[in-house]
Description:
Elements (H helix, E strand, L loop, with lengths): L1 E2 L57 E6 L16 H10 L4 E3 L5 E3 L4 E7 L5 E6 L13 H11 L17 E6 L5 E6 L22 H6 L12 E7 L4 E6 L12 E6 L2 H9 L5 E3 L4 H8 L4 E6 L3 E7 L9 H10 L2 H9 L33 H10 L3 E3 L2 E4 L2 E2 L1 E7 L3 H15 L4 E7 L4 H6 L6 E7 L6 H7 L3 E2 L5 E2 L10 H12 L3 H18 L2 E6 L2 E6 L2 E2 L15 E2 L2
Amino acid sequence: MISRYRRVSATVPLVVLALWAGACGEDAKDSDTPSASDAAAAEKLIDINAMPRDQVKDGGTMRWPLDQFSTQWNYNHLDGATSATRDVIYATMPVPFIADEKAVVSPDPAYVSSFDVTTSGKQVVTLKLNPKAKWSDGRAVNWTDYEGQWQALRGENPDFSVSSSTGYERIGSIGQGADEFEVIISFDEPFGEWQNLFAPLYPKQEIDTPENFNEGYVDKIPVTAGPFNVDKLDKSAKTLRIARNPGWWGDPAKLDAIAFSGSELEAQVNAFANGEVDRVDIGADASLVKRAARTTGGIVRVAGAPDYRQFTVNGTGEFLKDVQVRRALSLSINRETIAKSSLSGLDWPAVTMDNHFFVNTQAGYQENAGEFGKFDPEKAKELLEAAGWKLDGEFRKKGGKTLKLEFVIPSGVPASRQEAELAQTMAKDVGIQIEVKTVPSDPFFDDYIIPGNFDMTVFTFQGNAFPISPSKSIYVQPKKDAKGELQVQQNFARVGSAATDRLMTEAEEQVDVEKGRELINQADKLIWDEVHSLILFQRPQNIAVSRTLANTGAFGFKTPNYADMGFAE
């Protein structure tokens, strides 16, 4: 999965003063959120079996499988921006600002004691850090770590392989305030969602050079600063154990340890049914949800979230370079049918999502799919004919070549295969041949999606409390660096436009919420016309957990608190 907190997941497959606060936090009557009689499940904010800490047992190990076992544990690196990486890193690294279930953002007192924002003249953010916060090597977390991360992520040096420079490129300087625990962040250009920066924060000495940034967290997590420390990482066995940090300055972790392991989704559900793991993110696979729900001692927790399922279309593919072919492909896909098929059997409204930035239950959502987001196979045929693709038997040809696309999916994800095969059948009706190619889950992103070795693919982007800035790197127009290499960030479709970039840039500057929403929705309409990707549906968070687990499950917009997770007394 990719986390849109910027970023990606294969199985399911990341606001000034929370002004962009997402979704369900607002009353539906007072927002432009669509209503539906069957959408009760989608409106559930959180489902984690919340308990006070004194009712949670001290000790125990939670067994947590990951859909991919990361090789890159730098979440800010292009190869590391996955939900599997995030699930580990958010337990072991600083996340200065956190969201509640209503997407209201506030500082985490473990790292930031207070903050101040001035907007007269240039925007200046002052953070007062918790002086008790320390890296696992004993050094204090101080202003130099923020300055170091800015230098790495600001986009000035293309040798730093960053997943996103959004927001960082707007900062003019970061300096020390009254002491080493006061950070002065001065912006050259305003940035509304500044609280989404530095999440997570890495130690300056581990990311100060391109070599350190790119290689320092490959197959290892050398320095941490969270409620858990790394105990043992075995890349061959695909296992990682994190243990309670004895030097943690906040409320101590209730669990002794969390044992992560890499395996495919079906294997995870099998392990859950056999009592071998305690938590599985099932996604929108109804058969697996039902199987997990029947497990003795298990329960599936469900919440609405800023997560969505989508087809990415590689605009640099041999045939997909032509926007008319991409538009014909889009018109050949019945997104409503795919949504109904994928969500069948789930307590979730089977409706399409017609926006790249806001999910259906989120304030700011409006339908922007337009002409080329509709299902219109006759129009698709017209576009293909006009582009010179003539029907020759079952499929279309031009210049002696068949219009054939490769749809790459990860192994062990039944939902991906089902969605790809539906697209295959639909495209065939207009003369487009789709070949479904299954590849191993672990290298799915590293070897196929990130380098662009696909024509189409499907995965889930995960969102957070910030709808605009985390998404910018997904849709910004890729540019070539000094070496002539295309810098895609997370724009795996590899298409974009100056007009879209301008609107996204203007939107992320806004303090006026309605103006920001208006601008980003204008950008969204252009993205649909470009056929960057086909958004399918808002994905429910279906998290199977042991019934005795407390303070974990389907978090929705809330930032997980790993220290409070544990087993009920």
